[in-house]
Amino acid sequence: TLYRLAENKDALVLHVLERRLARIRRKGAEAAASRRDIRERIIALVEPGVTELRGASQSFFADVAVFPAAKRLLQQHQIARRKEAEALIRAGIRQGVFRRFDSRLAAEVFFASVQRVMDPAFLAEVGLSPSDAIRQAEDLLLGGLTPRPVRRRR
Predict the structure, then answer these.
(1) Cα–Cα distance measured from residue 17 to residue 9, given in angstroms and rounded to the nearest whole number
(2) What is the largest CA-CA distance in the chain?
(3) CA angle at residue 117 from 127 to 32, to 5 degrees?
(4) Contacts for 6 with CB less than 8 Å, ≥ 6 apart
(5) What is the pTM for the complete model shown?
(6) DSSP, residue by residue, the chain
(7) Is 127 left (phi over 0), alpha (psi -120 to 50) or beta?
(8) How far apart are CA 123 and CA 27, in angstroms?
(9) CA-CA distance, 36 to 89, in Å (whole number)?
(10) Hey, which bits of the chain come out as E strands?
(11) What is the pLDDT along the chain (154 residues), one digit of tens a residue?
């Protein structure tokens, strides 16, 4: 019955991976669209990726890294999510919620940080749970985008 989904094992892996990544993008887009606050929209965009991939093992990521088609699929997924975050950051800049940064750079740093803090070895090193690490990274990054209060000279 599995061969009704795909013609071989590699094609099956790609099919399952694509469906999972599409679900992450769909859930993130839906969650982001349901929020009004731009910061909450960015967090909602990222959250499904964190929850959906939380159970993925190091073996999964190692296998994806050496399977060129899966690696490309994951890279395309990350590019699509980065572009969504970039658009939200640009909107936040236009609204005056965020400081003026290059939105592409900010989105890239955001997703690179999320990817790093989800690494089990890093989490063990800093002693944080995945959800705590993500929350702190979100606070750090979104706080850094927020305008600084203007100091008055004496």
Answers:
(1) 12
(2) 76
(3) 125
(4) 12, 14, 15
(5) 0.78
(6) -GGGT-SSHHHHHHHHHHHHHHHHHHHHHHHHHT--SHHHHHHHHHHHHHHHHTT--HHHHHHHHH-HHHHHHHHHHHHHHHHHHHHHHHHHHHTTSS----HHHHHHHHHHHHHHHT-HHHHHHHT--HHHHHHHHHHHHHHHHSPPPPPPP-
(7) left
(8) 25
(9) 14
(10) none
(11) 666 777 888 888 899 889 989 999 999 999 999 999 999 999 899 888 878 776 666 677 777 778 899 989 988 998 999 999 999 999 999 999 998 989 999 999 988 887 787 777 888 898 887 778 878 888 888 888 777 665 666 5
Hey, what amino acid is at 84?
Answer: E
Cβ-contact 88, 41 below 8 angstroms: yes
Q: Which two tokens stand for residue 113?
A: 């940080």
Separation of CA 58 from chain center = 18
Tokens of residue 86, six digits:
């970039």
Q: Identify the CA nearest to 49 among candidates 14, 15, 74, 12.
A: 74
Question: What would the two tokens of residue 92 be?
Answer: 């936040």
- In this structure, what token pair is assigned to residue 148? 């600084």
